[in-house]
Amino acid sequence: MDSKSPTIAVNNGPETQLQVIDEDQNFSEQFHYYMKHVWGLADRGFDYNMVAVFGSQSTGKSTLLNRLFGTKFAVMNEKARKQTTKGIWFSQASGQNVLIMDVEGTDGRERGEDQEFERKSALFSLATAEVLLVNMWENMVGLYNGANMGLLKTVFEVNLQLFHDRNSRKGKTLLFFVIRDHVSKTPLNQLADTIKSDLNRIWSELSKPEGLESCQINDFFDFGFVSLPHKLLQPDQFNQQADALRLRFADPSNPQYVFKQQYHKMIPADGFPKYAESIWEKIVSNRDLDLPTQQELLAQYRCDEIAAAVFEAFADAIRPLKPLLESGRLVDNLGEQMDHHRHTALTHFDKNASRYHHEVYSRKRKEHLAKLNAELLLLFLAQIKNAAKRSLQLFRDSLKKRLGSTTNSSASSPPDYDFATVVKAASTKVLDRFNEQARALILEDTDWSYTAEAEQLEQELLVITDQLKEEEIKRLQRRLEKMVQSKFTEEVATLLNEPKEDMWSNVLRMFLDVNEFEEKALRRMAQGLDVPKPELDRLIGQFRLTSWEALYTRIREETSDQMMLVRLRTCLEDRFRYDEQGIPRVWRPGDDIDGQFGVAKESMAKVIPLFSKIDVDGFELELEGYFPSSFDITDHIELLSPTKQKELAKRFQREADALYLEAKRSVVVTTAKTPYWIIVLMAVLGWNEFITIITSPVYLILLVTFGTAGYVIYVLNLTGPVQQAARIVAENATRHMHNLLLEALNRTEPQNQPFQNNRTMTGVEEN
Ligand SMILES: Nc1nc2c(ncn2[C@@H]2O[C@H](COP(=O)(O)OP(=O)(O)OP(=O)(O)O)[C@@H](O)[C@H]2O)c(=O)[nH]1
């Protein structure tokens, strides 16, 4: 309301006065605006004063006010001689924090016998003004009507009505009589005595309410008397004394300064328009006017209004914090910031609201504080939530960093930390930090708590610890698996390449040894990870299964068709093409190829059955209870099914045939003789080429190179491997030729078949 600019046309001059109550007894909506923007008094707190003028109509009241306070109240036109001031006008004393109230004159012929407005305006003035100026002519002193005695009786009556409760009465009101046109020789004090005796008489005649029977007029009023010379007849004296009188209102250092603290109605200036309005509303509606209640109501209204304005500013100030917190960030010094904003809001509230009714103010302050706290609680909770999240992240990171530093170390090397100690240290650090952050957020006069959040955080730390422990164990398991895999890769191939009776026992021994070694590492790590015994047993069982799986897979790789064929061929070659001392055999005519081949064939008979399954005989005791009970090792030892064994035997047979034929062919080659005349003929015919080669550096170098290579191959007896390499390279191209040769040989030597019965060299029965 107070921000609305005035729409009422002001009376006679610049807008410095306002008809607050019009002749129809309506209260002006512009009062708030004038207080704040025209008179600038709204922010003065109690630092303002208020004067009201009373008196009969057209007795120069407005003239007096204008002369004393520099106001511009309308003054009666001499010729018209009719009532000028209607209702109640307000203005500000020029250059002073003084509100002047020009009240419609009494005895006005315009209102006739209607004394109601007089009573209402008296009530209104007594409830608001510190000083009531009573304006009267000197010659009226001693007369009942002319001296406003009727009006004063009304004033006294309404005063008793207002302050019938002794406890609610605070201070007094100054009745300041201004006797105009003091032209007689009667001294002022005599005039004052006459007025005082009249007043006492009126007071004594008043019927006092219960409890106030014995009270005196001076309990409620102080009296002041002053006279002014005739304005028209003695203008100089009038002006001189009017100036002197003006100083009594304007100069606080004046010994006769009229505004004493005890007269002040103690209505804060910002609440005065509302107070005046509600009082007037009560007066107009003829309801009992109870000033203390009014002041309480005003206090409630104004405290709410002040709190709302302060809260708006407070909400604006903390608004930027919300999105930050909602985005999950931790706001630095949030506790301090919240405290600062709350302190500012309370200070502003206190500054404006503490002037009002104390109990109401205290109650409203509590409400205001509770509202501020409720708003800040949201920030507090958001920050706590973010702090907890950050704490979890910090905990996770610090543990990962600490534990991660060991992940690159060998699985077999002992851990350089104790998991429980590391977790405890990290957890304590994070919780301490969280508690510190949360504590810094707790504001005075709040019942905020973060115990539940701290407990929740602790629980979540435990969950993370378990997760990390699980991850760590998995990582450890993976490392161990890799370790055993790499060991099996090397060892299994070596052991299986020697297909002897004790082959499987060597493999199983190796398996158990490797496991034992890695299990030691697992136990050490588990101890560091604070793994309980049953869990460790489960992990070891799991590890053994995985390890067996790795071994079994590795062995199966080694026993694939291709690998088996290579292995069988290698074994056969070792036995057939090398003698007992390991020296390669060179077959010559007359050598017992068939016999040697038979021996080799005999030794190969047990190879395929040996590889048919992992033989765990002899390890029953060691393997008993070695694996988890759900695992039956007999389901995981078969390598070659009977069908597969037969198929392999068949395929190996062909390989063996080729080896046998190769040996036979080498004998044929070495026994073939070249006729001498052919040699002579070649020498004669090739003489020219021979000369060309030995005279050409290029041919000579090529000859020497190939000759040297041939010699080395011959000396080192590498013709076999070289031939084999050449054969593999040219296998496809020569396959056809090879078949033709086989056919030709079969035609020439049908009696030289290597196998006479249906038992093969691998020991597998032919179908
Ligand atoms: N004799 C005399 N006349 C005065 C004095 N002061 C004012 N007047 C005249 O009295 C008349 C009324 O003056 P106002 O100031 O309008 O009187 P008022 O009491 O405010 O009148 P309402 O507002 O109509 O009640 C004017 O014509 C003034 O010139 C004074 O001190 N002595």
From TrEMBL:
It is found in: Endoplasmic reticulum membrane. GTP binds at G55, S56, Q57, S58, T59, G60, K61, S62. It is a multi-pass membrane protein. Residues 695-697 are lumenal. This is RHD3/Sey1. One of its GO terms (cellular component) is endoplasmic reticulum membrane. The lineage of its organism: Eukaryota, Fungi, Fungi incertae sedis, Zoopagomycota, Kickxellomycotina. Residues 454-486 form a coiled coil. PROSITE patterns: G_GB1_RHD3 (PS51715). GO terms for biological process: endoplasmic reticulum membrane fusion. It comes from the Eukaryota. The gene is SEY1. The keyword Transmembrane applies. InterPro entries: G_GB1_RHD3_dom, P-loop_NTPase, RHD3/Sey1, Sey1/RHD3-like_3HB. Keywords: Coiled coil, Endoplasmic reticulum, GTP-binding, Hydrolase, Membrane, Nucleotide-binding, Transmembrane, Transmembrane helix. GO terms for molecular function: GTP binding; GTPase activity. Residues 45-263 form the GB1/RHD3-type G domain. PANTHER family: PROTEIN SEY1. Residues 1-673, 719-767 are cytoplasmic. Belongs to the TRAFAC class dynamin-like GTPase superfamily. GB1/RHD3 GTPase family. RHD3 subfamily. The keyword Transferase does not apply. Its main location: endoplasmic reticulum. The chain crosses the membrane at residues 698-716.
